[in-house]
Structures
1.
Amino acid sequence: MFPPVPNPSTGPQSPKFGEQDLMRRSASNVTPPAERQTEVAKLIDVSKCIGCKACQAACIEWNDTHPEIEENVGVYENPHDLTPDMFTLMRFTEWENPETNNLEWLIRKDGCMHCEDPGCLKACPAPGAIVQYSNGVVDFVHENCIGCGYCIKGCPFNIPRISQVDHTAYKCTLCSDRIAVGQGPACAKACPTQAIVYGTKEEMKKHAEGRITDLKSRGFANAGLYDPPGVGGTHVMYVLHHADKPEIYAGLPNNPTISPIVEAWKGMTKYAGLAVMGVAAVTGFLHYMVNGPNRVSEEDEEAAERLTGDRSS
Amino acid sequence: MSTNTESDVGKGNSVHPGKPVMVDRYTGGARINHWITAGSLVLLALSGLSLFHPRLFFLSALFGGGQLVRAIHPWIGVVLFFSFLGLFLRFWKLNLWKREDGTWLARVRDVLTAHDERLPEVGKYNAGQKLVFWSMSILIIVLITSGVVIWDEYFAAYTTIEQKRWAVLVHSIAAILAISVWITHVYAAIWVKGTIRGMVRGSVTGGWAWRYHRKWLRELVAKPPAKDEKRTAAE
């Protein structure tokens, strides 16, 4: 068992990270701090999850969101999907293991993965609307957000949601406001089976190793850690009993990367586009400089007068 | 063979002999239509560019900030689409490709060095203008289509994220091309003196028509004199 994050002291504390720890800031250049803070991570052990949704309740309570009350349509997910008011969601999959013919109930807590290489941040056009701290937290800064939805296109996990109320994007913050003062994320704090644990990324990897060894000894030969290298690793990781098939966990992407379409749009197109428009403008200017204006001559006017004169006579 | 209909020379176009000869080129309606299109295109370019490159985000201040750019840009796009549709319906016939257009285009060197006397006589539009017209027509269809796909406020639910990724890439490339075509269009109007007057006041001089659109001028002159067509009734 991983020791839970201890309760913090009740005295006021200054936050452990802030502006000075920004590694990346959307649509702006920042000088990353010389020294990186210890990377933090949340580890979600899917094999231990009982689907109680305490994490969802804690998330709603801490973030003070008010998800709409929906109709029961006969599935366990509630609400039906991530929303601007629901940053994390238990996704339930009934999967029949072809090797054992056993029905396995796979429950995955979905939410922002806090990628080391965040697609949302790369796609964002608004300066400072998405930031990445050197401890790995990717956070949305609502006063800078313009609600364009580019982050949705950048995200390989389909996480951000735009609020129709204030027209800004919402997602899990990894409880950046809690962890800055030494508390664990609300979901981890609430989890009754310690399926969600929080600590440094190294600690989490080590803890996952122990869990994976245990799962393997129980017959889950493909148990493993989900820390996808395609996005540089994530700061929310999963222990999966079937790590070779992440997609069976409600479509968890196998080897996610930032879409090449997004990379082309935010890479080549951005620079080539400015170049093409610039060349067009400069070419026009140079042409004028060299050739001067194209003017109608006296002879042209006279020719026109002769032509029309023929008609009127 | 030489039955000149309105569509060969343009609606309301006529010659007024005198010194200099004046030629009506654009009706008031056509001009208003054009300038609404032009204004919305400029606003679209400025607001679109502000979201295209971080260095240009400052342009969003012209519209009252990023949130407003996000909200307004698509609506200006709708205005442009319908406004351009008006121009398209007015001018598409005059922009059909003719035999002399190939020759004109082949002598692009003479075009650029202002040796207009070496070019074939052309109608109301030359090949360059026709290319601007058709490329803008195609690009605006591409822009409005891809634009609707990424207009998340109203249409987010109708397409997949993958389709939206393609749409945003296509939208930005089409916009770059449209802005480049627009630069060409504006430059040509500045370079060829007497052109802007045609779209502002509606008329050009006879010499201008003789030099750049002689076939059009000949057709206008050959047109039976408009007895019952009063000048003010052009529209």
2.
Amino acid sequence: MVRTDVQLMLDVKAGDGNSFELLLQRYRTPLVNFLFRMVRNREQAEDLAQEVFLRVYRAREDYVPSAKFTTWLFRIATNLALNSVRDNRYQKLEVSIDAPVSLDAEDGDERTMDVPEKHPNIEQHLVEDARRKMIRHAIDKLPEKQRAAVLLHKYEELDYAEIAKILNCSESALKSLLFRAYEALRVELAPLVAQRARQ
Amino acid sequence: MESRILGYVDGRLKESERLEVEKHLAECAPCCLRVNEFSAVAGLLDELPLIEPSAEFDTRVHARVAAEPQPKAGWWAWMHFSPRIAFAASMLLLMALWLGYRTGTPIAPTIPNDDQAMMQDLPVLEDHDVLQNFEPLKDLPSPVQSDDDSDAQQPQHM
């Protein structure tokens, strides 16, 4: 029988290290992906994901299952990501005085990550690469809170109530936030949207 | 309708809500277009691949967890058995008892029983000496001896 997240966390609280290991296995990939899409840097995303697990471990003794485990977990992750995004923004502002950062330099991590090992057609690969870049840049251009809402909604498939708790807003405010985010993405990705809508 | 379009696209609406939206979409071309476009956006977002954490990720988490200090003990933790603390506490207790006994009891040398009895009679003996050497008493006439006393007492003046 598969133990729920809350059961595992209560076992961690009771001193069971194996349960912490199970939570780590269960959530490391979703967390790293969420954080990577938030901060756009793989190394930083992994550091932040480690920090999330560390904070979960530190809080084990005070853990009370008052909310869903994923709500708590992604709330920690979202707060860390938002802080990191803000810090990075200031750092980039400082760096840009002496050495402006190009878009290609920002995409360095993406390029190494997405290149398929054996692509049948280099032209097709370049087209797909360009599409992904456009999609990533469209997500990056979203305000931080809208970006977090889209990522939690689309990729983590959390329900509205959970995301609202994570972002500390009402459900109706969240729906409005998501609508505006999808509107912005629709405009930013208009050529791809039209192309896809025709298919 | 705005708040329901995304839920409709994602299939997260209740059955009754879904039917209401579909009824509206059948009559509203702009909303219908918006649903198609949002579906296209959702499809585009699906094109982004997942990444896997690096091979060192778990090792780093384990190392950071292992470096965490042990949880702080509660106020009652001092009661937990510890040989060193127990030994130190018992030695302290013994020393305190010994010191208390020494300071609380007056220092008295051991006195043999005969001498102790004599010391208890000292006031009486002192009175006897005073009376015997008291000059004015010597000038007094000898007491008249009764017949009863003659057997019991020796005459003072021979």
